[in-house]
Amino acid sequence: MTPRGGPTLDFSLFGRYFLDLAVFYPGAFLCLAPLWEHVKAPRRTAVLTAALVTVICLAAAALCAIFELDSNILLLPTLLAAFWLLRWRVGPEVSVSQTAFLFAVSGVMMAVCSLLSVVLNKGISLDELPLEEYKAISPVFENDIYEAISMKTCVEKRMTIGAPGPDVMEKVIAENKKYLEEN
Questions:
Q1: pLDDT tens digits for 1-35?
Q2: Which terminal residue of the chain, N or C, has fewer Cβ atoms less than 10 Å from its own Cβ?
Q3: What residues contact 143, with CB distance under 8 A and at least 6 apart?
Q4: Residues β-bridged to residue 39
């Protein structure tokens, strides 16, 4: 607060919030790219999108910095506004469900980026982050998150050839033994 009692803007906090919210740029691209042929005036829409994302990020960062809000609070309302703006710019051949799917993909990406932003700003790992912080990003997180992100689970769930998962490694070893026996 200033001596006169009005709110002040902490520019370092503003910059951090702007970078937190800048995840909207790749999110907007993820939504626009598959619909490019169906967007009304694609180049104009791309410029409009970049301008709107910039204005939204600047305004939201200022609100968060002035009123000491968590930037995640503004993600959902901004996504909803962006969804209807995109619906306004696409042709009638693109259904609402197709647009919603693209936004769901973007939403997941933004949640992951928000989570990474939190742990990087705190200088901690994912398994050190309290459950309350996870819930601030998304209310669907529960205690099972810690088991899901454990090193053991991450190694065991890697199932592609060459990955360290035990089942895959056993399969690769068996295939190589068979190859060596036959050749």
A1: 445 666 788 888 898 888 878 877 887 787 788 88
A2: C
A3: 131
A4: 90
Q: Which two tokens stand for residue 80?
A: 């909803």
Answer for the pair 62, 11: CB distance below 8 angstroms, yes or no.
no
Q: Report residues of the chain scoring pLDDT below 50.
A: 1-2
> Which residues make Cβ contacts (< 8 Å) with residue 134, sequence separation at least 6?
115, 141, 145
As a three-state string, the secondary structure of the chain is: CCCCCCCCCCHHHHHHHHHHHCCHHHHHHHHHHHHHHHECCHHHHHHHHHHHHHHHHHHHHHHHHHHCCCHHHHHHHHHHHHHHHHHHHECCCCCHHHHHHHHHHHHHHHHHHHHHHHHHHHCCCHHHCCHHHHHHHCCCCCCCHHHHCCHHHHHHCCCCCCCCCHHHHHHHHHHHHHHHHHC
Q: Are the C-beta atoms of residues 61 and 21 closer than 8 Å to each other? A: yes
